[in-house]
Amino acid sequence: xxxxxxxxxxxxxxxxxxxxxxxxxxxxxxxxxxxxxxxxxxxxxxxxxxxxxxxxxxxxxxxxxxxxxxxxxxxxxxxxxxxxxxxxxxxxxxxxxxxxxxxxxxxxxxx
Amino acid sequence: xxxxxxxxxxxxxxxxxxxxxxxxxxxxxxxxxxxxxxxxxxxxxxxxxxxxxxxxxxxxxxxxxxxxxxxxxxxxxxxxxxxxxxxxxxxxxxxxxxxxxxxxxxxxxxxx
Lengths: 111, 112
Description:
The structure holds two protein chains of two kinds. The radius of gyration of chain A is 13 Å and the shape is globular. Chain A is an all-beta fold. Chain A has strands spanning 4-7, 10-14, 19-25, 33-38, 45-50, 56-59, 62-67, 72-77, 86-94, 97-101, 105-110. Chain A has one domain (4-110): Immunoglobulin-like (Sandwich), CATH 2.60.40. Chain A contains no helices and eleven strands. In chain A, 0% of the residues lie in helices and 58% in strands. Chain B is mainly beta. Helix content of chain B is 0%, strand content 53%. Chain B is built from no helices and eleven strands. In chain B, strands 2, 4, 5, 6, 9, 10 and 11 form a seven-stranded mixed sheet that branches. The chains are: A mainly beta, B mainly beta. Chains A and B meet through strand 5 and strand 10 of A and strand 4, strand 5 and strand 9 of B.
């Protein structure tokens, strides 16, 4: 039983386009929803995160949209660049501990 | 600035052998955890610890043991390795204040 479901598995976007990755969760006790970025051969690193008391958070070209009633959240990458090509993971946790990850999305941005 | 350090980076085992993956952090984080990463499965939580002397199971704990005798170290033990444990293992640490996890660079384990 996957607690955090992520889609799509892979995504190809043209340079300058918008990349959108979606996640859904089941456990209403989750109170922290981060997105992590991973490059080949490296560990994941925090990209952006949101708590359920807000519906949107923006940091530069990266935006999280959060829909508490639907138990869904998404990552939007505006003006996607080849350097954004990586694997992206959504995640959820309770109290900052026991973080559960989605299956990941491999993003490729074509130059 | 070391952050989270994992050793070894690569290891090949035969079925039934035992080994320990080491993880150390120098950020005084109370929380530490182990994940395994498999293609198409994302990162799955094996075990975690919220402080020295306190550990708990994650999503896929079977076949793995952990202990936390100090704040800095959180080793992961495989008592009798199986081919199904072939994976890339990541250690992560963090604090409840922010929820952010800091990952090591991973340990690639192959069990023949």
